[in-house]
Amino acid sequence: MELLLGMTATHWLIVGLLLLTLELIGSGGYLLWIGGAAIATSVLARLSSVSVENQWFVFGCLSLLFTFFWYLYQRGRDKRGLERTGLNQRGRGLIGALGTTLTSVSAQTGRVKIGDSSWSARCVDQQEVEAGEQVEVIEVDGTVLVVRPKD
């Protein structure tokens, strides 16, 4: 208990660096912000004559604030990242790809071969493409490719 009530700027710096070192081992980012709060508290303790009790209060508040702001930042990045990723959305990677029709493709139904896969397809703008012709994928609607005849 005496150690906790006798924290100096040097102690806060050591705690901060120790937490940052533990973060390198792999805590998933959480110790980074607590370590940053400890280092910020060290700077505050070095530059002013704040009591030890207030240093602990500042450390707690900064830990919560740093962690909360990182959470908000990361949550926004995660949401934007999910919209841009092609993970588990194989069809999105096919936009612009060329394929060959296996059956005639109308505005309602048909089959297209792209690479080694066969996909359900429909033609854009009420066009119809006969079997064996080249088509280009212009859109993906669920698991159905929207295609147009290759010019």
UniProtKB/TrEMBL annotation:
It is found in: Membrane. Keywords: Membrane, Transmembrane, Transmembrane helix. The chain crosses the membrane at residues 12-35, 55-73. GO terms for cellular component: plasma membrane. PANTHER family: INNER MEMBRANE PROTEIN YBBJ (PTHR33507). Its main location: membrane. It holds the Pfam family NfeD. This is NfeD-like C-terminal domain-containing protein. It is a multi-pass membrane protein. Residues 93-149 form the NfeD-like C-terminal domain.
